[in-house]
């Protein structure tokens, strides 16, 4: 495997390390003797000494802000690393999937009250549906399952900080705030176009990743206001004692118990944008009932009054998001993202703040003479701020477009290289295309062929990781499970290859080659009865279908070998 290779410092020969020979090695090309310690890390050398598949990777250390577990624990097929946090609904762990070594955010749902138990079935149904969402700014949901009667959700682990903690540590400019909001709105627009409502947009559900990009989390996890009542929440103290956050960001209709819509999500994201600009939520209270009344009754002060750096057009966008009536807001995330992008580029926005003109008119009549000059100055200052924000954001948008164009070019070059079987170039180009943000069918093809390229190059561990990424994103495609199974088989991880081939057969039961691979994996783990069944099916399919006919003799020999073992054991 490539990470076990060393390069001779004298002649450049590449060769593999062998555990039994130690780190002082002799180059097979020029016979130079040298110490290879400089070429491998201690962990890699430890793994070489172990041999493939003998032990899992070392357990990662908890990150800052996470709670270390007293001792190693497992939950289903996940190793728990640390506790990220907990709330009224679940305990969230940073965990590692045992077979793939992939780090995930594992939410273990705890039905420790009647209210939670009542809410969980509907939540799990929504989360399963949301697992189909594939967007670079939405944390991917990998698995919704149950272990010993306890439901869980495994999703992408995003390295970063929740928006509320990020804002506590950073002072953002107006243009930076708008860029974050516009990106979040585009992700929301995609979800809305796919028929999904978040229902609980709030700073703790927006993670700012290590690149400074917002990632939306917890699709499907929203709880109704009636849930809070059933949970026994009445004020801030009772909410905190149950790990529940008062619903500061919900719109009036959700405060009244109505099911959330796309316009509800618009309000909530607008409330988050308001807080980023004004330094506080649009409505606050320390008692649940008082909060719900204020959400319905009170009109928030314009963000510009709390932060004079906010340009008027942006204040109008926020005001439209926070309209009391859903029909007065943007229809969905797409409309909101368009107005934010118009603001960033210096174009007029569609939003107009209801009632602003009449209030301003009364104020001006009282102060007309004395403040006329200030009004003009403020208008000019606001427009200047608007232009500055627009120029910065427009430059960012141009860079993003250029990056995407470059990624599409690398994608085309990578596919062409793969077809020519120049796999090293294919891997380089396709990895660059994925990092550049290609999406849709192009992303699926790039992911699959990148993994195939690594396999053809003999980079088994990279291939396994790439195929794991593929099956997590596209679990309905049997090819991903098939090839990951082949990679794991080559690594002698036969228990894992059995599970992969079983999944592939489940998706494509009439594929004789998959049956053969599954049978061989059963043979390796000494489950001879199952090996015989699958190999017999494979041989029968090879005889019936021309495309596998040339395998019939070889598969038949393996079948006879298994039957011979079974007869010997019986004798």
CATH architecture grouping of the largest domain: Orthogonal Bundle
Q: Beta-strand level of the residues, as a percent range?
A: 5-15%
Q: Radius of gyration from the CA trace?
A: 29 Å
Integer count of domains: 4
The level 1 CATH classification of the largest domain is Mainly Alpha
Q: What is the average per-residue confidence, as pLDDT, rounded to a whole number?
A: 81
**Which strand order does the major sheet show?**
5-6-7-8-10-9
**What characteristic shape results from the CA principal axes?**
globular
CATH topology of the largest domain: Transferase(Phosphotransferase), domain 1
What does the model show?
The chain is of the alpha+beta class and 571 residues long. The protein has four domains: 2-50; 67-156, Phosphorylase Kinase, domain 1 (2-Layer Sandwich), CATH 3.30.200.20; 162-360, Transferase(Phosphotransferase) domain 1 (Transferase(Phosphotransferase), domain 1, Orthogonal Bundle); 407-570, Alpha Horseshoe (Serine Threonine Protein Phosphatase 5, Tetratricopeptide repeat), CATH 1.25.40. The chain is built from 21 helices and 13 strands. The protein has helices spanning 42-50, 114-130, 163-169, 174-193, 225-231, 236-241, 252-255, 262-278, 288-297, 303-306, 312-321, 333-344, 356-419, 423-435, 440-456, 460-473, 478-490, 494-507, 512-524, 528-544, 552-570, and strands spanning 5-7, 14-16, 24-26, 33-35, 67-75, 78-86, 90-97, 103-109, 141-147, 150-156, 160-162, 206-209, 214-216. The strands form four sheets. A six-stranded antiparallel beta sheet has the order 5-6-7-8-10-9, with helices on one face. Strand 3 (24-26) and strand 4 (33-35) form a beta hairpin. Helix 4 (174-193) runs antiparallel to helix 8, helix 11 (312-321) packs antiparallel against helix 12 (333-344) and helix 13 (356-419) packs parallel to helix 15. The chain starts with a strand and ends with a helix. The model is unreliable at 38-45 and 355-396 (pLDDT under 50).
């Amino acid at each position: 495997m490539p990470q076990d290779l060393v390069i001779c410092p004298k002649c450049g020969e590449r060769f593999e390390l062998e555990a039994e020979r130690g780190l002082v090695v002799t180059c097979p090309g020029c016979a130079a003797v040298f110490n290879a310690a400089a070429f491998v890390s201690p962990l890699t050398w430890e793994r070489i000494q172990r041999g493939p598949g003998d032990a899992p990777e070392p357990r990662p250390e908890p990150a800052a802000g996470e709670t270390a577990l007293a001792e190693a624990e497992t939950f289903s097929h996940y190793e728990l690393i640390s506790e990220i946090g907990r709330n009224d609904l679940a305990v969230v762990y940073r965990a590692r999937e045992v077979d793939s070594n992939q780090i995930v955010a594992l939410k273990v749902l705890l039905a420790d009250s009647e209210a939670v138990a009542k809410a969980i079935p509907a939540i799990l149904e929504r989360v399963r549906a949301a697992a189909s969402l594939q967007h670079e700014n939405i944390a991917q949901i990998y698995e919704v399952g149950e272990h010993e009667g306890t439901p869980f959700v495994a999703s992408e682990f995003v390295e970063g900080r929740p928006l509320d903690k990020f804002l506590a540590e950073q002072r953002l400019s107006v243009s930076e705030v708008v860029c974050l909001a516009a990106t979040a709105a585009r992700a929301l627009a995609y979800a809305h176009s796919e028929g999904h409502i978040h229902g609980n947009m709030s700073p703790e559900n927006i993670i700012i990743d290590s690149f400074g990009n917002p990632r939306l989390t917890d699709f499907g996890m929203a709880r109704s206001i009636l849930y809070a009542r059933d949970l026994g929440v009445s004020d801030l103290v009772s909410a905190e004692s149950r790990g529940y956050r008062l619903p500061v960001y919900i719109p009036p209709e959700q405060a009244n118990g109505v099911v959330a819509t796309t316009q509800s999500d618009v309000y909530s994201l607008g409330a988050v944008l308001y807080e980023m600009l004004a330094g506080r939520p649009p409505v606050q209270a320390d008692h649940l009932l008082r909060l719900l009344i204020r959400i319905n009754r009170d009109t928030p002060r314009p963000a510009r009054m709390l932060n004079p750096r906010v340009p008027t057009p942006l204040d109008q966008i926020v005001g439209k998001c926070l309209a009391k009536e859903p029909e007065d807001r943007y229809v969905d995330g797409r409309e909101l993202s368009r107005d934010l992008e118009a603001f960033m580029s210096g174009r007029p926005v569609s939003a107009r703040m209801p009632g602003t003109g009449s209030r301003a008119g009364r104020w001006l009549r009282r102060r007309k003479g004395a403040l006329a000059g200030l009004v003009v100055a403020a208008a000019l200052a606001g427009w200047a701020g608007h232009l500055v924000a627009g120029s910065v954001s427009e430059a960012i948008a141009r860079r993003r477009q250029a990056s995407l164009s470059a990624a599409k070019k690398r994608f085309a070059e990578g596919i062409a290289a793969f077809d020519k079987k120049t796999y090293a170039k294919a891997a380089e180009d396709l990895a660059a295309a994925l990092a550049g943000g290609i999406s849709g069918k192009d992303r699926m093809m790039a992911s699959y062929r990148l993994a195939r390229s690594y396999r053809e190059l003999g980079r088994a561990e990279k291939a396994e990781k790439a195929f794991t990424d593929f099956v997590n994103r596209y679990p309905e495609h049997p090819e991903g499970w098939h090839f990951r199974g082949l990679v794991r088989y080559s690594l002698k991880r036969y228990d894992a290859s059995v599970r992969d081939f079983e999944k592939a057969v489940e998706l494509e039961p009439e594929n004789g080659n998959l049956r053969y691979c599954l049978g061989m994996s059963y043979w390796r783990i000494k489950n001879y009865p199952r090996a015989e069944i699958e190999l017999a099916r494979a041989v029968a399919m090879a005889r019936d279908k021309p495309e596998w006919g040339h395998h019939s003799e070889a598969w038949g020999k393996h079948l006879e070998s298994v039957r011979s073992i079974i007869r010997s054991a019986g004798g």
